[in-house]
Amino acid sequence: MPNEVLRAEQLSKYFYEPGKFQVLHEVSLSVNEGEFLAIMGKSGCGKSTLLYLLSTLDTDYEGSLYIMGTRTTGLSETSLANFRNEHIGFVFQFHYLLPEFTALDNVMLPALKLARWDKKKIEQKALEKLRQMGMEEYAAKPSGKLSGGQQQRVAIARALINDPALVLADEPTGNLDSANTANVLAIFRQLAQQGNTIIVVTHDRDLAAGADRIIQLSDGRISPSSPDNSHSLTPLRS
């Protein structure tokens, strides 16, 4: 049996401005180790909101969330912050790199915060992640001097520095051209093959087509047309 990395049970989310509005309606899903899952849907359907709930960054919801066998729902902010840093990597549409820091320094930051290894080990791991992204030769270059595609690859390396079991990405190719989108897809495919679990929110059909499975959200609900609605997952290919 595959190892379950994430399970969401009956997640509901409300916004309260200008009035009470339900964004997500009892969304349930599970994701296993090594899966590459894409979440798609029209703008405003709730897919980014769902990703922020799955990431534990948003804790104002109804339902339950389990990651790596831990019920994260109800944990304190300090406990959640520590849990995220150890088990979850993030990639966003905008890279959020510190422009005056080198690529290497940016990648090292989450590991320095976690303090699982000494600085020499962290630097070695950061170089390894940059090498994995094809960015080792730019390690000493300020991130502000890199191209958009290069910055996104550094951001992915940073997300991987603590060897997270789960990598979450919100429109990671939204600002990239087709060539760099293909690079990011290849990276995610490789990571999944190595055992990382990848969940991506995207409008990009090319990126989603490379995933193992896809969730279609409509008005805050899993699309009823999904043939595998028990897991909220639609196989894209065998």
The number of distinct β-strands equals 11
- Count, helices: 7
| Share of residues in helices | 25-40%
Question: How are helices and strands ordered from N to C?
Answer: EEEHEEHEHHHEHEHEEE
CATH homologous superfamily - what is it?
P-loop containing nucleotide triphosphate hydrolases
Which CATH C-level class is it?
Alpha Beta
Content-based structural category: alpha/beta
Would you tell me which CATH topology applies? Rossmann fold
Report the major sheet: 7 strands, mixed
Radius of gyration: 18 Å
Shape: globular
Number of domains: 1
Distance between the termini: 17 Å
- Poorly predicted parts: 226-238
What is the mean predicted local confidence, pLDDT? 88
Provide the β-strand percentage band: 25-35%
CATH architecture: 3-Layer(aba) Sandwich
Could you explain how this protein is built, in words?
- With 238 residues, this protein is an alpha/beta fold.
- The protein has one domain (4-235): P-loop containing nucleotide triphosphate hydrolases (Rossmann fold, 3-Layer(aba) Sandwich), CATH 3.40.50.
- Helices cover 33% and strands 26% of the residues.
- The chain is built from 7 helices and 11 strands.
- Strands 3, 6, 7, 8, 9, 10 and 11 form a 7-stranded mixed beta sheet that branches. The chain has a 4-stranded antiparallel beta sheet with strand order 2-1-4-5, covered by helices on one side.
- Helix 3 (103-114) packs across helix 4 and helix 3 packs parallel to helix 5 (148-160).
- The longest helix has 16 residues, at 178-193.
- The protein is globular and about 50 Å long.
- It starts with a strand and ends with a strand.
- Residues 226-238 have low confidence and may be disordered.
